[in-house]
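Changelog note: in this version the structure field was regenerated for every chain. One regenerated record is shown below for reference.
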Amino acid sequence: MPLASALFALAGIVGLPATGNVHQESSRIYPLSARGRVTLQNVNGDVHIRAWDRHEVRIWAVKTASSRDLLNEARVTVDSTGDSISIRSRFGDGSTTNPGSIEFTIMVPRHARLSEIKAINGAVDIEGVSGGINASSVNGPVRAQKIAGDLRLSTVNGRLEATFERLSDAKMISMNSVNGPISLSIPYDAGAEFNARNVTGGIDNDFGFPVRQDHSAGSQLHGVLKGGGTYINLKNVNGTICIMPMSHGRRVKFT
């Protein structure tokens, strides 16, 4: 299918006298195949992604800035085909220290592949997507809930959190943080191989795997669950690592 590129037509400017900020909201829908590829890059603002049972993507964007001129400089660009969609935010020429923000709420097909979801200053929150996920933030937490496919999460400053409904479709899980805790929840009866390393924050797990302490290298964990399966690699510098088994949405403690 031909590439469709569009700038959002934004409407509904609303001023907030208490802060002097102005807002604009927009909403657009694009077709996307069931296992289509989604990429997003946002400089300033949170990103929320939810799954639904439709072969289309709905993008709701809320722009916020301190003036209408800055609001007009903040733009959303979308490049779309039937098999992929790319979403990008732009904020003028970069000369303004406070250009504003764009908050995204995006609905995607349940089995879509989130091949690159990237935020610079803002949180990333994903729920219900069973395709592969690659998401990151520089300054902000990254959270993925009720997921099932391959996962790669990273952040520099912020919390990482992932909760899996099943691991049968996931070959690899990678979570990397510099400053912030890492929390991983998986089904208690899943097959997996764990490798975790933490420089200063320690490692906590409810599977009973021993944690080796090394004065120069920090904490290290290696363990195989149910004969192995999904490869899980967790790395942190400053912040805890917590690995939890779950059953029917509740934490299970092995003794």
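Spot check on this record: The first strand starts at residue 4 and ends at 7. Residues 4-251 form a domain with the Pectate Lyase C-like fold (CATH 2.160.20).
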